[in-house]
C-alpha cells in the first residue's frame, strides 16, 4: 500500500473534519435533566405540620364550647370588681377643652351659650381590687357557669395579670321621681392600668374632666347640700377599650354602673355637715350703716369672714381666681321659727372676693350692700306675737330685741337670686345661676348695738312740782315740764338724705323716775302713747346723728314713792329756790321711717335737771 492517500480519501477529509466539529459542538450543549421526586424527609415534615394544624383546629373547636361569652366575662368582672373612692380634689374650671384632648364639637350645647365649653377638672384617688374568690363562692347557677368563671379566673391571674383600658365614652345620670336626668359627660385623659390578680389593690390617681349639664347637676348639688341623699340614684354607662402590651384586643360596654357601689355617702355627709357647721358660726359685723337714697333705704354692712381650713384646702388650686358677686334676698324671722317673712322688696349684694384674699388673710373684710324699696311687710311690723296690758310684741320687736342684747346673735335667712359676671370665676356663671335660686341658708350675725348708748340723755325743762287739792281729802302731786330726750342713731347716715328728715319719733311712752339725794321719790308712768316732737341734730360728722325728742308730761299721773324725800326736795326748792334731781327714763319710742313705723321698746336713759319754784 502506498504511503500517500488515495484521491478518494482526500475528498473525504474535510467532511470528516466538519462532522467532527459539529459533534463536538453538540456534545458541549447540556442535556435537560428529568424532574426529581421530593425526598422522604420533606414529605414527613409537611405531613407533621398538617396533622398539627388539624389537631389544633380540632382542639380549638372542642375548646370553643368552654370559652366564656362576652356577657359572662362582663358579668364576672361586675361581681368581682371592688372600687373604693379615697378622695376627690377640686382643680377648677377651664374653657379650653382642646387642652384636655377633647374635640371642640363634643362640648357644644344645644342652646349655644357663651360658656357652653366650660368643663370641670377634678382629681380622684381610687383603689381597685378584684375578689375572684367571691365570684366563685357566690355562684349558685349551673356547673357550666362555675366552669366559665373558673376559666376567667385562671386567665386573669395566670395569663393576663394586668390590663389597661381607655375610657371612650362615659355619661352620668340620676334617676329621680319623674325620669332620668343626664348630668354630664366624663373623660379620663390617660390610659389606666390595673392588676387583675386576686386581692391585689391598684392605687390610682386619676385626672377626671367633666362637662356638666348645668341645670340637672345643679339639682343634684342642691339635694346633696340639703342632705337628701335618699332622693339620689346616681349611675353611669361607659364604653372602654382594653389593651395589653400596647395592643388593643376589644371594647367593653358597661350599660349601668351604680355609684352606690363605690361612693361612700357617709363620707359625703360628713363633709356637708362640716360645711353646715361653719355657716352656723356667727358672722362678725364690724360696721353697719343705713342711709336714705331716693325711694329706697340703703344698707352697708362690713363683716369679717374667717375662711375655714376645709374650704382653704379646696381653694388652694384656685389662686388668681375670684368668687363672683352674687345677689340675695332675705327672709326675716316671724313669730314662729318655721314662719319666716320674706322681704320681697329687698336685694342684698355680696362683692367679688379674690381667692387670694381668703387664703392670705386670717380674717377677710367684706362689704355687703343692700337696698329696700318701700316699707317693710305688714306681717313683720304689725303681726301680734305676744301682748300684755301695755305692749304688743311684733316680729320686728323680737328681732330688734336681739339686736340690742349683746348676749344674743341675730338670725335670718338668705335666699339666692343670681350671680354677676367676672373673668376668672371659680365656677361658671350659668351653673351658679342654676344653683343660687335653690339656696335658702340660715345665717347668724353678731350685729349688736348697745341699747344703753341709744338714749344719751333725759332731762325735764321748766320742771315744777306742787301739791294740788282736788277735793276735801284728795291732795295730789302735780308735775309740769317738758321732757327732752337725746337719742343717738349710730347706724343712721344722713349724708344722702338731702336735708330731709326721713327719721322721726311721733309717739312715746314709758316710765320716768325722779331721784333726790340718790333716793327714788317720784315716778311718772306713761302707759299710753303720748304725742312727741323730734328733730335731727346735724353735726360736722354726718355719720353720727342724734335725734332730740320732746313731750309734755303736764297732767300725767304721778306716783309718790318716798314722801319723806319728796318733802326734803320741796323744802329745798322753797328755801333755795331750786333743787337738783336725777332723772331716769325707760322709754318706748315709735319711730317713723321709710321702712314703716318701728317701735323700740325698753330704751333706757338718764340725766339731771333742775326743779324751780
UniProtKB/TrEMBL annotation:
Q: Would you say which domain of life the source belongs to?
A: Eukaryota
Protein name per Swiss-Prot or TrEMBL = LALA0S03e08944g1_1
Keywords, A to Z, come to:
Membrane, Transmembrane, Transmembrane helix
Show where the Tag1 N-terminal domain sits: 68-265
> Where would I find the Tag1 middle barrel-like domain in this sequence?
281-440
Which chain regions cross the lipid bilayer? 41-63
> Which parts of the sequence belong to the Tag1 C-terminal domain?
500-611
Gene source species = Lachancea lanzarotensis
Amino acid at each position: 500500500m502506498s504511503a500517500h492517500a488515495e484521491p478518494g480519501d482526500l475528498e473525504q477529509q474535510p467532511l470528516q473534519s466538519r462532522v467532527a466539529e459539529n459533534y463536538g459542538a453538540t456534545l458541549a450543549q447540556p442535556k435537560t435533566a428529568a424532574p426529581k421526586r421530593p425526598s422522604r424527609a420533606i414529605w414527613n415534615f409537611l405531613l407533621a405540620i398538617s396533622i398539627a394544624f388539624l389537631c389544633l383546629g380540632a382542639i380549638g373547636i372542642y375548646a370553643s364550647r368552654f370559652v366564656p361569652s362576652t356577657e359572662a366575662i362582663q358579668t364576672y368582672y361586675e361581681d368581682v370588681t371592688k372600687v373604693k373612692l379615697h378622695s376627690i380634689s377640686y382643680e377648677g374650671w377651664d374653657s379650653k377643652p382642646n387642652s384636655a384632648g377633647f374635640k371642640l364639637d363634643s362640648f357644644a350645647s344645644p342652646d349655644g351659650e357663651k360658656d357652653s365649653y366650660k368643663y370641670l377638672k377634678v382629681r380622684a384617688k381610687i383603689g381597685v381590687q378584684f375578689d375572684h374568690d367571691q365570684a366563685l363562692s357566690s355562684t349558685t347557677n349551673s356547673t357550666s357557669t362555675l366552669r366559665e368563671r373558673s376559666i376567667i379566673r385562671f386567665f386573669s391571674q395566670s395569663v393576663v395579670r394586668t390590663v389597661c383600658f381607655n375610657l371612650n365614652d362615659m355619661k352620668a345620670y340620676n334617676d329621680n321621681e319623674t325620669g332620668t336626668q343626664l348630668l354630664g359627660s366624663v373623660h379620663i385623659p390617660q390610659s389606666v392600668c390595673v392588676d387583675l390578680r386576686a386581692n391585689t389593690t391598684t392605687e390610682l390617681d386619676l385626672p377626671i374632666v367633666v362637662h356638666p349639664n348645668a341645670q340637672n347637676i345643679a339639682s343634684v348639688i342642691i339635694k346633696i347640700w340639703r342632705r337628701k341623699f335618699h332622693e339620689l340614684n346616681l349611675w353611669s354607662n361607659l364604653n372602654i377599650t382594653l389593651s395589653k402590651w400596647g395592643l388593643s384586643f376589644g371594647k367593653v360596654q358597661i350599660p349601668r354602673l351604680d355609684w352606690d357601689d363605690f361612693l361612700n355617702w357617709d363620707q359625703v355627709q360628713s363633709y356637708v355637715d362640716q360645711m353646715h357647721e361653719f355657716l352656723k358660726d356667727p358672722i362678725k359685723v364690724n360696721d353697719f350703716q343705713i342711709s336714705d337714697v331716693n325711694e329706697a333705704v340703703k344698707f352697708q354692712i362690713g363683716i369679717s369672714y374667717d375662711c375655714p381650713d376645709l374650704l382653704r384646702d379646696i381653694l388652694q388650686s384656685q389662686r388668681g381666681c375670684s368668687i363672683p358677686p352674687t345677689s340675695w334676698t332675705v327672709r326675716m324671722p316671724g313669730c314662729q321659727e318655721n314662719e319666716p317673712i320674706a322681704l320681697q322688696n329687698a336685694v342684698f349684694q355680696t362683692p367679688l372676693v379674690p381667692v387670694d384674699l381668703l387664703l392670705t388673710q386670717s380674717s377677710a373684710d367684706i362689704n355687703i350692700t343692700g337696698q329696700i324699696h318701700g316699707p317693710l311687710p305688714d306681717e313683720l311690723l304689725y303681726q301680734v306675737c305676744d301682748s300684755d296690758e301695755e305692749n304688743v310684741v311684733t316680729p320686728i320687736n323680737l328681732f330688734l330685741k336681739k339686736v340690742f342684747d349683746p348676749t344674743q346673735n341675730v338670725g335670718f335667712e338668705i335666699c339666692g337670686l343670681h350671680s354677676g359676671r367676672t373673668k376668672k370665676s371659680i365656677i361658671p356663671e350659668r351653673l351658679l345661676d342654676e344653683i343660687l335660686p335653690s339656696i335658702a341658708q340660715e345665717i347668724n350675725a353678731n350685729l349688736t348695738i348697745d341699747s344703753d348708748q341709744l338714749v344719751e340723755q333725759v332731762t325735764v325743762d321748766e320742771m315744777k312740782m306742787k301739791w294740788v287739792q282736788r277735793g276735801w281729802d284728795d291732795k295730789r302731786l302735780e308735775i309740769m315740764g317738758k321732757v327732752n330726750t337725746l337719742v343717738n342713731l349710730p347706724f343712721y347716715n344722713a349724708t344722702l338724705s338731702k336735708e330731709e328728715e326721713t327719721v322721726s319719733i311721733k309717739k312715746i311712752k314709758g316710765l320716768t323716775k325722779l331721784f333726790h339725794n340718790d333716793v327714788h321719790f317720784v315716778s311718772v308712768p306713761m302707759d299710753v302713747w303720748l304725742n312727741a316732737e323730734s328733730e335731727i341734730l346735724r353735726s360736722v360728722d354726718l355719720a353720727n346723728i342724734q335725734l332730740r325728742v320732746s313731750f309734755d308730761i303736764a297732767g300725767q299721773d304721778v306716783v309718790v314713792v318716798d314722801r319723806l324725800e319728796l318733802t326734803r326736795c320741796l323744802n329745798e326748792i322753797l328755801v333755795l329756790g331750786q333743787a337738783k334731781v336725777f332723772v331716769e327714763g325707760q322709754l318706748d319710742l315709735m319711730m317713723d321711717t321709710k321702712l314703716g313705723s318701728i317701735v323700740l321698746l325698753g330704751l333706757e336713759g338718764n340725766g339731771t335737771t333742775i326743779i324751780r319754784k
